[in-house]
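Handout, page 2. Input:
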Amino acid sequence: MIASLTIRTPGPGLHEFTGRVAEVVAASGVAEGLCTVFIRHTSASLIIQENADPSARRDLERWLDRLVPEGDPLYSHTAEGPDDMPGHIRAALTATSLAIPVMNGGLTLGTWQGIYLWEHRRGGHSRSVVVHVS
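Output:
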């Protein structure tokens, strides 16, 4: 089964959508297999991360902002705004796809794990995520 999800982001940061992926897995009827999640963008990414304490997400966001700052004079790709090239680099450093085993008809995430879309641009966006369960 393949499903396309639209994830609307209000701005930069980690946005959890674990429940929406779990719904696709449940609807697929697959008891044991693999769930692949793929984002169709170059300035946003996917990550599995702690979903219990929001400070973990804030720390990750701040760390990546320090690692890949806006306004680096070495960037030549600037036509789409000062947040675009850093968004591409941040996406290259993280992931565009995730693979999660399916057991007993559900995702095998750990107790504190959630699936996140990491928006790397400042403005809100509608991001397309493809979920494949087999």
